[in-house]
Known about the structure:
By secondary structure, the protein is α+β, with helices and mostly antiparallel strands. It is built from five helices and six strands, in the order ββαααββαββα. It folds into two domains: 13-75, no CATH class; 80-185, Aspartate Aminotransferase, domain 1, CATH 3.90.1150.
Amino acid sequence: MQTGIARTGEMFAYERSGVKPDIMALAKALGGGFPIGAYLATTEASKGMTVGSHGSTFGGNELAMAVANAVLDVVMSDGFLDRVRKNALLLKQRLAELKDRYGSVIAEVRGEGLLVGLRAVVPQADLIAAAREEGLLTAAAGENVVRLLPPLIVNEAEIAEAVHRLDTACKKIEISLAATTRGAAE
């Protein structure tokens, strides 16, 4: 659900793996915030979806289909995926600089496209809270990873602002760590 519709810099994440799925579920990004769900299937895999074998509460919603069509028009427009890739690279480069500067806070930058995670050295809740104090919303993901999911239309100035806020959060954590270490040594 989270890796489709350009999130990884490709239309679908599987395009980076070399594996072709038989069935793929779509939602969230397909509607650009409007509730929708869909699935794509090969001819062979779809043979099991016969009339009456599957129901849907919102199946046939014309508004949802119009919204999805508009979203796909934007995402498939000339240069859109290239901008996503360019901004994703910029974001990861700037986050790598933070990792190098704050190795006691960030252990690793990971992810594809604009689906990015920071593996934290400190408890992820501490990094999430510090980022929130700086006005940057993040989320927990997996074991001690802080997830960053900027919108696909993020621009360079917004990336710079987010990284600045994260830099300030990391700096505050590092100062706190140093004070704790000094206090324990005394």
